[in-house]
Every structure is written in C-alpha cells, then in structure tokens.
Write a structure and sequence with these properties.
Elements lengths: L1 H10 L5 E7 L6 E8 L9 E6 L3 H26 L20 H12 L8 E5 L6 H14 L4 E5 H11 L5 H12 L2 E7 L8 H11 L5 E6 L10 H11 L2 E5 L5 H13 L1
Parallel strand pairs: 4-7, 4-8, 5-6, 6-7
Antiparallel strand pairs: 1-2, 2-3
Helix pairs in contact: 3-4, 5-7, 7-8
The structure holds zinc ion (ZN).
The site of zinc ion has 7 residues, from loops.
Length: 269
Amino acid sequence: MRSVRKIANMTTDFNGKVIKKYLCEGCGNEVTVIRAKMLFGPKKGEWFEGKKGCDCEVYEIVRKEQEQAKAARLKRIFDENSLINPALKEATFENFEPNEFGQALQKAKRYVEEFDLGKPKNLFFQGSFGTGKSHLSFSIAKALQEKGYSTIFISTPKLLTKIRTTYGKSEMNEEQIINALADADLVVFDDIGAEGEISGWPIQKLFEVIDQRAGKHNIYTTNLSSSEFEVSKDLRRIFSRMMMDAEPIIMNGTDFRKKQFLKKVKENV
Ligand SMILES: [Zn+2]
C-alpha cells in the first residue's frame, strides 16, 4: 500500500496553516487539517480548509477495484469451465415457476444463505424429467457466484463427451476443466446418468472427478432412481459418493416443459 499512500499525499500536498491533527479511524493515518489560500483557479485568493494525510478515498478506490477484479475472475472461472445447455442460461430463483416444488425452491435458497466453506454440504436433486432440478441448481451456482464464491456448473453428459473425445489427445481444455473442478468452492454435476453409460473408462473418470471433490460443496442432479444406480459397480460407487453429507431433494412430477407446451396447444385450438 506504500505506493498508494505516496499518490494520496501528492494529490493533497499543499502548504498552509495547521488547524488540527487527528488519527483517522478509516485509514489509521495521522491527518492534518490545514487552512490555506487558493493560489490559482477561479477561486484564487479565497480561504479553504483541506485534509492532508488521509488515504481513505484511495483505499476505497483500491478496494472497489479489487472487488471488481474478483467478480470478473469468478465469472471467468464459471464461463470458461462450465458446460451448460443453452436453455438454462437465464435460470434464476425468480423465474422458477413450478409451484408444486415451492419447498424445493426454499431449500435451494436456504443452501445459498447458509453456504459456509468450513461446513461442506451436498445437495442431491432426484426426480423425474423436466421438474426444474437443473433450473434450481443453476440458480444456486449463479447466486453463490454473486456472493463471491467460485462455482462451476457441469452438464455431466457434456463432461463425459469431452472426456471421451479428448482421451489420448493432449487437449488442454479437458485438463483445465478437471483442475478447475477440483478447486472450485461449488460444483454442480447436472444430469448424472443421462448419458446412458453404466461403466467403462469415462464413467470411471467421472467417479475420480467426483471423488476428488469429497469434503467440498457439491450439487448433483439425476433422473435415475436409487435402484437404477445399482446396475453397475461404477454407478453404485458414484451413487455412494453422492450420498455423502447430502440433503436429498426429491422432485417427482409432471414435466414442466410438456405442461407449458400443452397449455399453449390448448390456447391455440
Ligand atoms: Zn482516513
């Protein structure tokens, strides 16, 4: 902060009569209040009072700049590493509509409020297709990013495609994503099981990725029922990791998109 102080003193460097000195509560500096005459400008000759030594304004500028830089960094982590279906990108708590899942919405909001890096907790959204599990998880990731946490949202089928297509090739992007997944404060693994694979190298890789997130905050969503996770050893291992320190949120119901569509059809008859 030494260079900052130097700039502050330069901008307030003037000579005059010292009226008082005090310690600023904001920056801790000794501040000198001076009374002096304007030497130039339209108010030339007029008396004014000025403070010398207080760096509060400069610290405030630096603080704001650091805050903006942090927000930009968190957004970049999210944008560069997330794998998202375009339909989800506008999802927020405010535009979550299925009111039969009001309780799920409340739990999701509470997760954001109570988020604490020292107390890792997982959410496990399980239920039928199109009930808003991804919508709520995406909203959580975005809300936490706004609160200053690094978050990443992963469509698990897309991650597996990436792992499969870059396997053996030294593609930076996959490695970058997997490293970022290990570091993030929260990772959402959306739509686990939707890729239809029950075993093999990509599923084992997925297990590794999930396993290295143990002891951190994670959110999982799946359409698979608990018994469907029993069909292979690899899926069973993933299921058991997902259950660790997890609060289940069950969302079974009508496909919301289908309901919207049928409503539109009815209106147009
Ligand atoms: Zn000050």
